[in-house]
Structures are given as C-alpha cells and as structure tokens.
Amino acid sequence: MRRDDRGQTTLDFTIGVTIFVVVLAGVFLFVPGTLQPFEEGGQENIVTANRVADQLSEHVLAEPTEPYVLENGCVVPFFDESEPVPAECNYEGGTLQERVGYGDFQFANVSIRGSVAGSSEVEQLCYESANPAGSRLESGSDCGESDDTRLAVGSDLEGVESSVTARRVVELDDQTVFLVVQLW
After folding, report:
1. What is the mean pLDDT of the chain?
2. Carries keyword Transmembrane helix (predicted)?
3. How many CB atoms lie within 10 A of CB 43?
4. Tens of pLDDT along 31-53?
5. Which of 10, 38, 39, 49 is 20 to 30 A removed from 82 (C-alpha atoms)?
6. What Å distances lie between residue 93 and 24, 30, 49, 98, 111, CA to CA?
7. Pairing mode of beta strands 148-150, 164-172
8. Residues 111, 149: contact at Cβ < 8 Å?
9. Separation of alpha carbons 18 and 74, rounded Å
10. Which residues of 12-26 are buried (b: 16+ CB within 10 A; e: fewer)?
11. Could you read off the pLDDT of 54-76 as tens digits, one per residue?
C-alpha cells in the first residue's frame, strides 16, 4: 500500500468536523425557537406589565401633556366599573382587559398604593370623593363607607405562585402614590 493512496487527509477531517459542529450548533439554536410558542414564558408578561403601566400612567388615567399626574375624574370610573366614564377620559368602559389590552390567557390586577396620614407602610388606597381636595385618599383599613372607591381592579392574586409587577410613581389628589400593575 502506498502512502498517497490514503482516502482521507488532515484537511478533509478538519473540514468534516467543522461542518458537523456548525450543523449541531444550528440545531441547538433552531429547535428551542420552534418549541417556544408551546412553552409558557415570563418574558411576554414583563413586556405587557410595563406597557400597561406606562399606558395607564401616561395616557389613560393622565393627560398626555402631563404624564404621571392622574386625573381625579378618570381614576374613580376606571376602578369602579359602575361609574360612567367622562368624555375627557382616554378610555372607554368595559372590562379591565378591554380598557388596557392584555392577552386572553393572562390575568391582571391594577391598584394604587401608598401611605397616607404620616404612615410609613405602603398599602392599598381608597378614594373618598366627598372629602376636600388633598385628603381624598384613605388607607385600605379606612375603606368601607359607601362613597369610598377601592383603588384596585382585576383578578385576585390569592394562590398565584408567580407574577410580574410593574410600578410607576404617580401623583393623585396632590399626593405621591404608586400605580401597581400585576400580571400572571
């Protein structure tokens, strides 16, 4: 047997291994992308929660010219679906899903939280329309009167193991509060 009759050279082997590694890497990159529509992922929830929080704090509950300053007249009908929506508000009546636009297989909760009356604890707030301006927000423990509007709408989070939360610092009734959007 002669040496130049050999069927494979070092260069042939290197090219073959390189092609094999490139194809193998392509398969590992391609297969997860084909399975992704059937997997449940949290990335979509993060994007949706942030979009909803921005939409509410900049356009829906606030004037676009004055973002993050919520309009008192638009906040109460947003959280109390039985209230009529004034024409100057940037949303129409309906369910929370119709007003902010999240997916059919997602659940959401929107609330306004803060601390009132010198308390350091951040808690659920209520809106009392009968009080004078600047003192309409009450802590959740003070809620319960018939005129109070609980500033929370959407599904209940009890028993939910994982959710995505987006917070925005906003102003309501001349007080700094948090607009909290939770999605799961």
Report:
1. 79
2. yes
3. 9
4. 766 655 555 556 677 888 888 88
5. 49
6. 53, 43, 20, 8, 17
7. unpaired
8. no
9. 63
10. eeeeeeeeeeeeeee
11. 888 888 888 888 888 988 888 88
